[in-house]
């Protein structure tokens, strides 16, 4: 084995250590999230999702702490994979249905090193009702988009990422109004899809700073059971929103979509043209 000495050797060791650290954080992140969303024989059969189990069994403080820890792990993983860089992205988990309570990341934070003090609790109107910090944190400006989705039965977690591929494709296909994904085996990672012979139309919505109006529009569409909002949507030149019954499922949906975005993007680069 070749031994590098001097600055080159130090740089090589530093790069390897940094890479190992990222890999370790990603493994730990996946472990926490999967444990939170795991369904096993020790749970009572009447609980079909982690959200139902946590709501019925755990205390409000335990639910909030567990949700915060799991979202911290998601932030570390997504940052390591390039999906939540800078201060971008926001994540939320429903901790109670009656009354409705949503734990969400505070605004303007680096997602690579979140702690319990980096979250706020909101009611269904978006009003802050609790926090792990001294009350100085403010929810993300896009919190009402999370609430619009999370109020729908069957959605227990909402995740929002800003990957390069999602941002690029959301603009490239904006004129079509959606990104059509079809024929890929990885589509089977989306809940309810059992074959690669499937076409998934992921809607692209024009980006706006008028989040209130967009949230109202989404709320009306959710109330009408709009099939286009089954898994999530893309905001043009912005990023991906995806959700699931619990955090583990929402995380998986993000991972599936981000993989497929990269495949589509790399295919376009190799072919040199956008398919008609």
Question: How would you characterize this protein structure?
Answer:
The chain has one domain (7-271): L-fuculose-1-phosphate Aldolase (3-Layer(aba) Sandwich). The protein contains seven helices and nine strands. The protein has helices spanning 6-37, 50-57, 60-80, 143-150, 164-172, 211-223, 247-271, and strands spanning 90-97, 100-105, 119-122, 128-131, 157-161, 178-182, 199-205, 232-235, 239-244. It has a nine-stranded mixed sheet with strand order 4-3-2-1-5-9-8-7-6, with helices on both faces. It is globular. Residues 1-14, 16-25 and 27-47 have low confidence and may be disordered.
List keywords for this structure.
7 helices; 9 strands; 18% strand; 276 residues; globular; disordered N terminus; alpha+beta; 9-stranded mixed β-sheet; L-fuculose-1-phosphate Aldolase
